[in-house]
Amino acid sequence: MIQRLRFDKYSALYLWALFMVFFTATKGGTFLSWTSFKLVLTDPAAYTGALALAFLVPLATGTYDLAIGANMSMALVISAHLASTDKTSDVAAMFIALGACGIAGFVSGFFVVKLRVNSFIATLGMSQVITAFIQLTSSQSINSAFSDGYRDIGRRELFGLPLFMYYLAILAIIVWYVFEHTPVGRHMFATGGNPEAARLAGLRTDRLVWGSLVASGMIAGFAGIIATWKVGNYAATFGPGFLFPAIAAVFFGASQLKGRPNVWGTFIALYALAWGIKGLQLTFISNTRWIEPLFQGVSLLAAVSLASHQGIVKIRKRKGGADGDAPSTPAISADAPTPAAQATV
Amino acid sequence: MTSVLRIEHLSKTFPGQVALSDVSIDVAAGEVHALVGQNGSGKSTLIKVLAGYHQPDGGERRAWVRDEPLELGDGQAAIAAGIRFVHQDLGLVGMLNAVENIALTAGYQTGRGARIRWRDEARRTTEALDRLGLGHVDIKSPVDSLPPSHRTAIAIARALVGWEEGAHLLILDEPTATLPGDDVERLFEVIHRLKARGVSILYVSHHLDEVFELADRVTVLRDGKKTASVPVGDLDHKGLVELIVGHHIETTSATDAAVEGEPTLAVRGLSGGSVHGVDFDAWPGEIVGLAGITGSGREHVLGLIAGQLPRDGGTVMLEGSAIENFQPRQAIQAGVAFVPAERGLRGTIGPMSVRENLSICDVGRHFLKGRLRRGDEVGETNDWIDRLAIKTSGTEALIGSLSGGNQQKVMFGKALRLAPKLLLLDEPTQGIDIGAKDQIHRLVDEASAQGVVTVVASTDTDELVRLCHRVIVLANGRVVATLVGDHIATEHIEHTQLESSRRAS
């Protein structure tokens, strides 16, 4: 019976249900109100969701992109700068900003693919270079750079939700479609699973990694564009704080549903956490800033441990039963559906 | 002459296979004692029993080190009794330098506050290497960055630290298997020095030149039994080959098979890795075997053709069009299907299912009208599971949950579904059970019957005999013999491998 419930694959869904029941019981109306529902759905989950997609795409190919936070800030800074001058229209500024983020991803890709720098290190380095660029060009905040007409493209509401949420949903569907329904997605996961086997199978592994970093840069840029609609200002504190929640959602999500990084698992994890945080914030009214990091950290550790544990049990069973014809695959990467095994760097 | 290690009546049986049968061996003090035999003759098993990886069969399990009884199958006891091992993979930690590697085994010398006395450690390392005549070896860089002969020397130096305090026998397990030619010479100098110091050595090898160069006595194993234990001086090269292979064979020069028409595959001047200029052709439906001892080039030829390894030179033509260097994608498009050796490293994609592993080379086949048709893909996978008799809980089982033989069958399905013109099989049945092996052999026969050209590289000589129409024997990176017809016999191939290895060196 316990097996049927598949706690390993659906832990985030159960957790989500638990939060809904528990906090509805303790906090009732405040927790279930439309205002709090909307707040959880769009703020800050909009940024986190976009950044999580940005992290997810290269992770499928076994590549880390830690420059996503910096890219997000850069998109906001560039479009705010260009939009505040009269020469460029706000929409053109948006596309230039996205292009710049794509270029940043391309440069990361050059280091990873051509110079064989570990992606963790290469993108960490790029992240600092981009941060330096941001500091150099805009040490203080940029206010009211965007016209109302431009901001309405994203913030106008449809069925009670701002339009950027629909854009984000479309983006998520595109990533899901590419991952699950095209050969490209299959090739990306094969590259992440065993780069040498993928290369020998005739896949263009270098291009897949490189391309995924360009896509990651642009998706992170899109997170910055959401900010141009939602906030409309640039402040120096914007950006880096969203990195961990996004990565936590991806890794927690990777333990869900398919046992590898996937779009819907990521969003389920993201919203399960967001609702849990909301409930706790309503419970502890004063000083609630500790809740979010604690919650994300603990749930990430718990979910991934559970998934790894299942893998380890499987391996032990195999080892006991096999004689003479032992499995030649390194058992950890074969059986444990942890993101760590998926994303070998 | 006192004996350092004496083993009597040792047997070891694995399920369905006798690895060692009533083997006795006696290593005298101060001698270099060679242990030789073909792959599967039992020499590795013997070393592994000594090192405690395997338990000997019950009953007679007697061994003595300097007349002190030793319990076999206990690694700690063997080391306590004074046996030191240098295994083929050396067992060094690549990121650490020589000093740290030696200290890991020998124990750190610590001063006050558990501070490691690095200066003393460095001196110990330099002295140990100096005594091997390699005082110039870089002891500060990670051992991964050192030449192979230096790494071997460090492993030997590590084994010999504290030698005077009660160590008696050094076991070198195929120390030259992965060394390039010049490095072998350097290693020989080291061993000559050890011999001069009076160190007793049990030297495991399948290179007969090394036996004549280094050893005082030689013990030969064949099919798990000892065939001889004699002074090297009493043997010549030919006599030793006969002891190893088992039959006296008239050396005959084989002729190429008379084949009509243009070859499908033409390999010219292929070089790279351990291969130095290999030429061969193959005709439709032919199964060509590649034989040779490790280091002969056998292990790299297929990788160089398929794009796994970069070539230094040479061309490969398949039906008149070139297969480019180091381009697996282009090779597949030209009609090559490659089943690499070491499946786990280069073949299977661990986090993926049987279905995904099977279809990865051509997923596009199921991409119709903007979507991957999962149903079609599952259907095709089920067809292959039936056709290849793959034992799996289903198409969605992770590849790692299958046994080695069934994983290999998936790799075959992955290759065969490309409908290749050329099938390259590198150690196709290594480490898989007998039943799966037989099934895989039948698959190769079927592919051949349909006109596919197959090239098989294998250390398993029986496999080559079973499969091949023609066997090409490599030594020192070159083709030294081509065997056809009646000449394709296990003893004959092994004979040629060993003989040629000498002639060419």
Describe this structure in words.
The complex is a heterodimer of chains A (345) and B (505). With 345 residues, chain A is mainly alpha-helical. In chain A, helix 2 packs antiparallel against helix 16, helix 5 crosses helix 14 and helix 7 packs antiparallel against helix 13. Chain A is globular. Chain A has one domain: ABC transporter involved in vitamin B12 uptake, BtuC, CATH 1.10.3470. Chain A contains 18 helices and 2 strands. Chain B is α/β, with parallel strands linked by helices and 505 residues long. Chain B has a 6-stranded mixed sheet, with helices on both faces. In chain B, strands 16-19-20-13-21-22 form a 6-stranded mixed sheet. In chain B, helix 3 runs parallel beside helix 5 and helix 5 runs parallel beside helix 6. In chain B, 49% of the residues are buried. At the A-B interface, helix 11, helix 12 and helix 17 of A face helix 10, helix 11, strand 18 and helix 14 of B.
Q: How many independent structural domains of chain B?
A: 3
Q: Calculate Rg of chain A over CA atoms.
A: 21 Å
- How would you state the average pLDDT of chain B, rounded? 86
Q: What would the average pLDDT of chain A be, to the nearest integer?
A: 83
Overall 3D form of chain B: globular
Question: First CA to last CA of chain A: what distance?
Answer: 38 Å
Q: Could you give a short account of the major beta sheet of chain A?
A: 2 strands, antiparallel
The count of strands of chain A amounts to 2
The total strand number of chain B stands at 22
CATH A-level architecture of chain A: Orthogonal Bundle
CATH top level class name of chain A = Mainly Alpha
SS-derived structural category of chain B: alpha/beta
Q: Could you give a short description of this structure?
A:
The complex is a heterodimer of chains A (345) and B (505). Chain A contains 18 helices and two strands.
